[in-house]
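User: Run a structure prediction on this.
Assistant: Running it now.
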Amino acid sequence: MSKNMATLENLTILLSAPRGFCAGVDRAIQIVERSLAKYGAPVYVRHEIVHNKYVVNSLRDKGAVFIEELDEIPKEHVDRPVIFSAHGVPKHVPENANAMNLFYIDATCPLVSKVHREAERHYKNGDHIILIGHDGHPEVAGTMGQLPDGAVTLVETVRDVENLSFSQNDSLAYATQTTLSIDDTADIVRVLQNKYPHITGPHKEDICYATTNRQEAVKMIADKADAMIVIGAPNSSNSNRLVEVALNYGCSKAVLIQRAKDIDWDWLSGVKVLGLTAGASAPEILVEEVIAQCRQHYKVVKVEEVVLRDEDVEFKLPKILRS
């Protein structure tokens, strides 16, 4: 037992479920692993396949090479497979890949692709698209990149909506990033619809099932926990939202960490009930790692899994990798 124990008292961990990998993340990782098995190393991946350093490093150890742009691929490797990340890419990326005669496999999450198709449909109908999302996030860049410059206006907050200057005669539609806060997005959509009653929304909610489930599961335990740990990457939108949800629903303190080694045990001083969850890009092994570290710092650790619902969603792999 460590000398710098947060406490000698017992700890109860409320383990939120669902947590961790979603179907889109699982599919994207499988695409890289199966490509390596089928074609050998190296396999190039444009951008982090998912936002998790542990996952990226594990795939790198197996032979994946991560790049930001296609021109980083050495000339002698232009015949190697290139994989596009789960977040989706602007249209110019596959166009450039075709121009370079690259063999690429698209690992974009099907639920992100759904938003792309919706945006294209609205554009063809003559609508200007208002996209609710986070500036600079690769998913937002990918969605905006499906359409010509100027066809999409990005809003991040209610204030951004209030500052919009479209008229009531303008034909408008909205879409959202798939990993946003359910509550914040609902507020933005409400203001948007009040300001532009004629605006067209998506046929089905854009925020994905996994984001929704993980946030709702955290709401179930937030007010029962003295503190909440969310396992995920700093650049993971859905993971950051889980921290916000915990704080908004009654947990007095919440923090995002990447690994068990990042735990501040002084921060946990006095905590008797700890909420624990993981973002959609974080593997279960990192959850187990945190629990194991807690067992090193407390006399007794009791783990109670609190289940919102079971998930059985599965996305098919690209045909070329199914056999």
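The radius of gyration is 21 Å.
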